[in-house]
Amino acid sequence: MMTARIKGRLTGLFVGAAAMALASSVAAETFTLRIGAGHPNGPTVYVNDTANFFVPEVKRRVAERTEHEIEFVEGYGGAIAGVADTLEAVESGLLDIGAFCMCFETSKLFLHNFPYYAPFGPQDSAQAMQTVRQVYNEVPWLTEAFTKDYGQVLLGLHGWDNYHLGTVEPWSTLDDLKGVKIAGAGPNLPWLETAGTVPVQSALPDGYMSMQTGVYSGWIMFPSGYLGFKFYEPAPNFTLIGFGAMGVNALTMNAASLSRLPEDVQAIIREVGAEYEAAAGANLNAAQERGLTGLKEAGANIVELAPEARQAWAETMAGFPARMAADGDGRGMPASDVLKAYIAAVSAAGYSWPVEYKID
User: Fold this and answer.
1) Pairing relation of β-strands 152-167 and 218-221?
2) Which backbone phi and psi does 59 adopt, to 5 degrees?
3) How far is CA 152 from each of CA 25, 138, 242, rounded to the nearest angstrom?
4) How many CA atoms lie within 13 A of 57 on its CB side?
5) DSSP letters for 227-296
6) Which residues contact 22 (CB under 8 A, 6 or more apart)?
7) Whether 258 contacts 269, CB under 8 Å
8) Residue 345 — φ and ψ, nearest 5°?
9) pLDDT below 70 — which residues of the chain?
10) What global pTM score does this model have?
11) Which domains does the chain have, with CATH numbers?
């Protein structure tokens, strides 16, 4: 027969188990997060990876590995915040998570655009992303600035595939471009200025109509974007120059939104963010190939800039990194350290710069 002491112990065990089950059931929650980007899903790789990898993977892993669930309210193509407003939308909490190009934050994220300040760099996106990550690791200021200045956490980096130039009219030398209005995102406009063109600040969603109506006559652009936004229709001439792939996009999360989540959910979000970054280079390289193939199939006139013309363009940029480093230093940023680290990392990765960049 069961003694009173044993009965008491069993009863306590049953009650404890029931209480634990009840606590687990009560603790399980569904968290809704708003995520968005100013560029649309589809023609822009970093947004495509956000919508088609980051979002479903976070949902799946949270459901499988925790007691909780994550639901996302997705707003791409400026549905919640535009290309120049996403950093601020995450800071204010309008978005919990935002994906954006830092090129549209030339003041607030001046130094984070450092790959633009050393053009004609890595042609391979995987190499570009690896060297940019190395600089972030060497100079923690870059990561810490997101939290310290803008109340958000950097989940992962992304980028653009190798930049070239699309124009309404064909050209072959720098002299042909003098006085021609060419659009860019912001930090790459100086590339155009040194060649004698008239740089115009613009954004991808405005490009088609602006070239069609003559507001400007070209775009400094990577093939995936040029194809995705159908720029080849108003400007069918695409010249391969190789300004380089640029790791200048970020996926960030509002720090307060992240801290409100259970620790196991936070860990998954960070984990998937790191994988989002790790896959960026290969995805961008694939997009470059698809873009060039698609442009050719669409009837674009694709030509490669003569080596001597490319070298001449690169030489006009020889002093650009040093000027930008001095500008950033003057703003109280570790700009010289960052530019030196980037140039060294690219060289150590085996890439040969067409011109020697020196930072004092």
Assistant:
1) antiparallel
2) -60, -45
3) 31, 20, 33
4) 16
5) HHTTTTTT--EEEEEEEEEEEEEEEEEEHHHHHTS-HHHHHHHHHHHHHHHHHHHHHHHHHHHHHHHHHH
6) none
7) yes
8) -65, -40
9) 1-26
10) 0.90
11) 29-348 (3.40.190.170)
